[in-house]
Design goal:
The structure is a single chain. The chain is α/β, with parallel strands linked by helices. It has a domain at about 60-345: TIM Barrel, CATH 3.20.20.70. The protein has twelve helices and 13 strands. The longest helix is centred in the C-terminal third of the chain and has 27 residues, at about 370-395. The two termini are about 30 Å apart. S-adenosylmethionine binds near residues 75, 233 and 234.
């Protein structure tokens, strides 16, 4: 399967690049090709469940899903009722039980809410014990930033916990109150940024209402500081009806402006919002000829090396799902029976296997289905095409103005979805 990308130069001349996202073969981009051998990954499907490794590289601990915010697009909103509720005593049992199932040491331990700092007493008990047990592990958490104080910052520093503060800048009103408007909350956010600049950053979600990266950048520069790191959690994915008809529903013209905004931001700064990594990964995929069968899902939770557990020992599809219903995929007490059977690897989705952006997108969320998947896919496509366009621009100085399927039929929509790109402004 291949695509012909039409590129437009400054003088209006048109050029063509051939690209096959299934093999990463590419003709027409000035990249040195040095093919490497890639091992295929296991592909999960409901009828092809995957287990988990007893020696996970990434351990995600779901502390609970309670939250003091109610963000319009929260991917956990529909899961809250399915989340288990645990007591401080459960932390002791969790720690004592580690012996029985975990081998080796995870490289990364992530603490997840809800709002993780609502679970402060659990964090205080868990982290020192885990750090003692796994001295090389790096800790991190994502927070809405509203519950920091001196004690927490000192603890964060003592245990070198990387902190990501979710904040949508001009779109923060879609998330709830702005902690930066509260003098006390702002004070602690600023203290954390000042004391741990390397290990603290913001992360924004792009929504229908707010996806102009220039506006986002200016907002943070003016409201926090010019050198503050703002990454992108990505574009909003759709998990519930409210998001499907609200923040997650981009009109076609808005999808085009999302693509254009990503493209323009990356033309101006090839590492804008930390997206330089994605551009480099795209280049590397072509240079090394990374085949599609070497690619796992975007979130990494299809990998047996990544496991999400709650404090009762339940294992879930991911940290954003609750263990009381379908997303409970097992229990650490019966480790070999853990079966991720709630997800679909993108290889089993026709649209992904005929998508020019699949090497960048990696299939969106693996457990979404139906209309919610379709909408999330449309948003991801627009987002990732912006990255691809910028990658091509940095190599050629030309703008991608069209993408045509050259091989098999079946790419309904992709060419059409790019129609608006003909108007993408040049560099
Ligand atoms: C579910 S929250 C939990 C942690 C914490 N309460 C927070 O908001 O940072 C984890 C991350 O997912 C992001 N998120 C929530 N819903 C999302 C969605 N529908 N699409 C994309 N990202 C989403 C949030 O902005 C946040 O960065
Ligand atoms: S995104 Fe985070 S802060 Fe917002 S409601 Fe969900 S869990 Fe709470
Ligand atoms: S943009 Fe859509 S079709 Fe393409 S890989 Fe992502 S989810 Fe699949």
């Amino acid at each position: 399967m291949g695509f012909e990308l039409t590129l437009e130069a400054r003088d209006g001349s048109r050029h063509h690049v051939y690209f096959d996202p299934l093999t990463s073969e590419c003709v027409g981009l000035p990249l040195r090709i040095e093919p490497r051998a890639f091992a295929p990954v296991s592909r999960v499907a409901k009828d092809k469940p995957l287990g988990k490794s007893r020696a996970p590289r990434v351990l995600k601990i779901q502390l609970g899903m309670a939250c003091n915010y109610a963000c319009a697009y929260c991917n956990q909103a529909v899961q809250i009722g399915d989340a288990t509720v645990s007591k401080l005593a459960d932390v002791e049992a969790f720690l004592a039980g580690l012996e029985d199932w975990i081998e080796g040491a995870p490289g990364r331990i992530e603490l997840w809410g809800g709002e993780p700092f609502l679970y402060w007493s659990k964090i205080k008990r868990l982290v020192p014990a885990l750090a003692g047990r796994f001295p090389g592990a790096r800790f991190s958490t994502i927070t809405n930033g509203s519950l920091l104080d001196r004690e927490k910052i000192d603890f964060i520093a003592a245990h070198d916990i990387a902190i990501t503060i979710s904040h949508d800048g001009p779109g923060q009103h879609l998330r709830g109150p702005d902690p930066l408007d509260d003098p006390e909350q702002r004070r602690w956010i600023e203290a954390l940024l000042a004391e741990r600049p390397e290990k603290t950053g913001f992360n924004a979600v792009l929504t229908r209402q707010h996806h102009d990266l220039r506006v986002l950048k200016t907002w943070f520069a003016e409201n926090v500081g010019p050198d503050i790191f703002v990454g992108l959690e990505g574009v909003v994915n759709v998990y519930d009806v409210a998001t499907a008809i609200g923040t997650g529903r981009f009109e076609p013209a808005e999808l085009n402006s999302l693509t254009r905004s990503i493209f323009e931001a990356l033309v101006e700064d090839p590492n804008a919002f930390g997206l330089g990594e994605r551009i480099n990964e795209f280049f590397a995929s072509i240079q090394r000829r990374r085949p599609i069968d070497a690619l796992g899902q975007k979130c990494g939770m299809d990998n047996p090396d990544a496991i999400a557990v709650d404090l009762l020992g339940n294992v879930m599809t991911c940290q954003n799902t609750g263990a009381k219903e379908v997303h409970k995929i097992g229990h650490i007490a019966d480790f070999d029976a853990i079966a991720l059977d709630t997800a679909t690897h993108f290889a089993f989705r026709n649209e992904c296997m005929s998508c020019p952006a699949v090497q960048l997108c990696k299939g969106s969320c693996m457990f979404l289905e139906g209309e919610f998947f379709k909408q999330s896919c449309a948003n991801e496509f627009a987002f990732n095409m912006g990255i691809m366009m910028a990658a091509v621009w940095h190599l050629t100085g030309m703008v991608v103005v069209g993408v045509e399927h050259t091989g098999r039929a079946g790419l309904d929509g992709s060419a059409a979805r790019l129609d608006g790109m003909a108007q993408a402004p040049g560099p």
